[in-house]
Design brief:
With 336 residues, the chain is α/β, with parallel strands linked by helices. It has one domain: Rossmann fold (3-Layer(aba) Sandwich). 25% of the residues lie in helices and 19% in strands. The chain has 9 helices and 14 strands. The strands form 4 sheets. A 6-stranded mixed β-sheet has the order 6-7-8-3-9-10, sandwiched between helices. Strand 1 and strand 2 form a beta hairpin. The longest helix is centred in the middle third of the chain and has 16 residues. The protein is globular and about 45 Å long. The N and C termini lie far apart (40 Å). InterPro entries: AAA+_ATPase (IPR003593), ABC_transporter-like_ATP-bd (IPR003439), ABC_transporter-like_CS (IPR017871), ABC_transpr_LolD-like (IPR015854), MacB-like_ATP-bd (IPR017911), P-loop_NTPase (IPR027417). Belongs to the ABC transporter superfamily. One of its GO terms (cellular component) is plasma membrane. It comes from Roseospirillum parvum.
Length: 336
Amino acid sequence: MRPDPRWGNPATRSAAEASTVPPVGAGGEAVVAMEGVGLRYGNGPEILQDVSFTLPGRSFHFLTGPSGAGKSSLLSLMYLARTPSRGRLSMFGRDLALVPRQTYPALRRSIGVVFQDFRLLDHLSALDNVALPLRVAGVGEGEIRRHVPELLAWVGLADHLDARPSVLSGGQKQRVAIARAVINRPQLLLADEPTGNVDDRIAVRLLHLFAELNKLGTTVVIATHNESVVRTFRFPRLHLEQGRLTRLPPLADAGPAGGVPPGGAGPVPQMAPQGGANTSPDTAPRSGANVSPDAAPRSGANASPDAAPRGGANASPDAAPRSGAAWRRALRRDPT
C-alpha cells in the first residue's frame, strides 16, 4: 500500500485529487453551508425543513433537540451519506450540486464520524479498529504502535487493546469508535451521541478530547441529549425542533462561553499527524434522498477504501503534517 502524501510521499496522488478540497479557511469558505435544505425519505413528510446555517472553520457546536427531530439525518447530510431533497449544500467551499460524485471520496477523507451504532469491524481488535485509518493512509507500524495504544489508554481501554467488539460493552465500543474517528485529526468531526453509553466522568473526559481537537483546528459538531455536558462545555448550539433548525447561544453556566471547564481529565494523548484515512468501516455510504432511514448501510473490510466516509485528513496537499514533537507539545497541554 502506498503511503498518503501527507505522510511524506506527494507522488502518490494526482494533482486533480489533491486539489479537490481547499484547506480550512482557504478563501474564507465555511466548512459546511446549508441554504433552504429539505430532506425526506421516499414520499414521506420532510424530516428537515428549510435548514439554513454555516459552520465556520475551527468552530464547535452542539446539535441538540428531542428524539426524532432530525439530528442524525442532518449529520448524514454533512458526512455525505445522503443528498438533500431540495436546497443547497456546500462542503469545504464547494457546492455539492456542482461536484461530480467521483470526487466525494476526497471530500470524505476530511471528515471523521462517530456513529451511534459504532460500526466497528467485528473481526478486528480494538487496537486494529482504531489503527484502520492509519493503515489505509499507509502509516508505518511503528507510528501506529506509538499513537494508538496511548489514545486507547487515555479513553480508559489500556487493558482492552486486543479485545474484539463482541466482548466489549456498549460504552467501551463507543470509546473505540471515538478513538478511531479522531486518531488522524479530521478537518470536520461529526459525533452522533458520543456520550450516550458512558458515565458522566468519561463523558467529560471525551469532551475534553473533542475540545482539544477543536483548538488544533478541527471543526466539531456533536449531537447530544446530555444537557449536563452542554452546560459544562459552553459552546453554541444548533437546535432542531420538528425538522427546523435554530441557532442558540451556549446554555447559561458559571464559566465563560466556549470555555473548557476545570476537571480531572488529565493531559490529552498524542494523536497521529494528519493524513487521509477511512474513519469508518462503512464502505458504501447511503446516498440519495429516497433512502430509507432504517436501511442498513453496506459495510465490509474488503470494499475499496475510497468508498467509505473518510476522516483524519488535512485536505490541503501542501499543508505539512505536524511532526510528532509538535503534536506532543500541542496535545500534552492539560485541558483542565
